[in-house]
Amino acid sequence: MKISTKGRYALRMLLDLAEHQQCGYIALKDIAERQNISKKYLEQIIPVFNNSDILKTSRGAQGGYRLAKSPDQYTLGEILRLTEGSLAPILCAEQEPAECTRSEDCALRPVWQGLYQTVCAYLDGITLQTLLDQQKEALRQ
Question: What distance in Å separates the CA atoms of residue 18 and residue 129, rounded to the nearest whole number?
Fold first, then answer.
């Protein structure tokens, strides 16, 4: 599994919003400057979150984006599933029942399913708040 630039930048954008949540709505240009990501690229990421409850939007001069919930309510797994589509290393790892004609006799299917479950458990165990806390701790040392 390889996380795309879109997925990495989406995580950075949402982490930036989490870090600056006390500032209200944040303009994309401010996130772009702080994260050294082009504003145009961030504009391409925003539609991924349109049909989810991830962001709140405000239009106008003081407009921008903010998290709809607190940072501890967002897991990296949830965010990456929205941006990447699937975290499965191969298609049959997440299918039940598997559509592959070899699935019943496949010695590797349990390996791929185990990898998929491990990746999901790991990423679903990390929230934006976890990352903020780790960052604060690292700065103290």
Answer: 8
Contact of 48 with 7, CB cutoff 8 Å: no
Compute the Cα dihedral for 38, 54, 69, 80 and give only its sign: negative
Encoding tokens for residue 100?
């592959």
pTM of the model: 0.89
Peptide bond into 97 cis (omega under 30): yes
Residue 131's CB: how many other CB atoms inside 10 A?
Answer: 18
pLDDT tens track for 40-58: 999 999 999 988 889 999 9
**DSSP secondary structure of 87-115:** --SSGGGS-SS---TTTTT-SSHHHHHHH
